[in-house]
Amino acid sequence: MAGTSSNVHFHDIPDVVLATIFSLVTDTRTRNAMSLVCPKWHLLERSTRKSLTLRGNVRDLFLIPTCFRTVTDLDLSLVSPWGHSLLDSSPNPLLLAQLLRHAFPSVVSLIVYIRNPSTLHLLAPLWPGLRHIKLIRWHQRFPMLPLGTEFIALFEHCRMLSSLDISQFHCWTEDLPPAIEAYPTFAASLSQLNILKHSSAEGFKSHELLAITASCPNLRELLATCMFDHRFVGFVGDQTLLALASNCPCLSLLHLVDATSLSNVLRDPDDEGYTSEDASITHAILGDVFARLPLLEVLVLDVCHNVRDAWPALELLNSRCPRLKSLKLGQFHGICRGIDSRPDGIALCEGLESLSIKNSADLTDTSLEAISLGCPRLSKFEVLGCKKITAQGVWKLTHVLRKTLVDVKISFCKNLNAVSSLQAMEPIRDRIERLHIDCVWDSVDNSANQTGSSTEETTLKKKNKSHDVGNDNSFSSRTWSKLHHLSLWIAVGELLTPLSMAGLDDCPSLEEIEIKIEGDCRDQRRPCMASLGLRYLAGYPSLSRMLLDCSGVIGYALTAPPGYTDLSLWERFFLNGIENLNLNELNYWPAQDMDVNQRSLFLPAAALLAQCGSLRKLFIHGTANEHFMMFLLRIPTLRDVQLREDYYPAPENDTSTEMRVESCRRFEDALNSINRHIPD
């Protein structure tokens, strides 16, 4: 090293090594900054870019740069205006499609919004080497189209396709089976199929699932919505599961969810946890299903109907599916008896790294203790809708798994409110990275919300002492040093104010927060306070991203009855205080009026969002008036804004008061105007 010159420059690094360094950088803004250093770095950055999302306006597609020729993963689903046909805006759609092919010749993975079948007919022949495609459509399917015709162009031209994702593509369940059966060579090459449909209240019937899996014997991953209710024709039961396992013996991921599980219907917190009907699934047949899937690594069975005494079948998982790493069960009862805290049932799956238990009526604290002893590798644990577990049982689980557990979700558990849930995390407070809790403030005196924060804090401190679940003094730190993602559920009308005093006051690494608000505000005359309490989140110094989901809030969008308030006042309640946060990115889902299928940004929301002086990205998952959107131009750092009607059914036709194609053009022109000075 003594002979090493002190004048060695970064450019002396061999190009091959430098290209490898560039390829390891994934953040888009960082890559863009690197490309501005010098011409050489510009060429290197472009030549090593592998993924790209186009966000320009469809009218400007002819200006696509041709320097990203090595891009393999291309996302065209977010081109503005969102949800409009990609190529119909051009007078020569075929020429525009050829231009896309010329600009991105190396694409093997494509995401695209298919408003009408012509888009796929034009794009599919351009990239015959596609290996993965994700189709998106939240608008309704054209009713006059023959079954399966929308997939013909894709299956005919993209013979190398191995992965198909239509989880966000609205079509009929009857569309896919005949299309797949018509192209057996294509079907045999499929290894990943995602038909976990979020846009339909109906799942695939048993004969449709069997037709699909019989045509795709080499599937390694299958995700699907179906019907487990035996009262319906085409329900999934024992024989369907056996046949499915026989059709696709190479499955490493099997994800089957009842269609009702994807709805936002809240269950009664006071029920016993059992549904009125049992699923036609027995533990004896489940054991045979597991035996036919020896390569299984991820299993999700969210049945939504009782599967009783499941522990004998689950005990077989460890021997018959030795590679199993992730397991999620919904409405399974008797999964672990926990007699004397000895492992049995699911607790014998010692290789599990992720476990989610949903609506298990007889899960107890001793079951949790047995699971913690039998599954020592768990890094992710979720428990939802389990009525018999308490903070003591969760505390014991986190104490035993304190060296591995970093991701926890506790939701809709009757005996676990916000305070007790946070206390149960005490053993892993300095290690946990992701956390979800419900903002249920049973231990907060309701009168404290009216009298002031000091009374509220005193009440919480007393409750914290009286409900202390841990006796180990080694976990005394109140700092959540590694927590970077926090997810919260809160009922409409409740407040976030007690959050910091409940134990989440010191989170120096928290970067992202997700808040989901649900409930019917038509039952309440007006909010009880001036704001939800977003301003209290300013105490998290690293917070830069927020997902505020009010789509589960139902109210009056137009005219409320006398004595009640419309959604504009509730939107003010939800967003008041957001200007105090130093957010860089915000995803916002407005509340909805189900009677008119309207999710719109109102004047109070637009005015409050316009005061967020640090926002760079703003995505509104709904509609808005053009003059409300113009308020957002007051944000000096704003660079990326989009309205996304990504819910079903998306509005078919823009009305005179909502953002239309020309409205989007005018807003984007103003946003990108040279007269706007962007600080960075």
Q: Which features would summarize this protein structure in a list?
A:
globular, single chain, 22 helices, two-stranded parallel ribbon
Tell me what the structure shows.
- It contains 22 helices and 22 strands.
- By secondary structure, it is of the alpha/beta class.
- The strands form two sheets. It has a 20-stranded parallel beta sheet, covered by helices on one side.
- β17, α19 (567-575) and β18 form a beta-alpha-beta unit.
- α14 packs parallel to α15 and α15 runs parallel beside α16.
- The longest helix is centred in the last third of the chain and has 14 residues, at 453-466.
- The model is unreliable at 444-467 (pLDDT under 50).
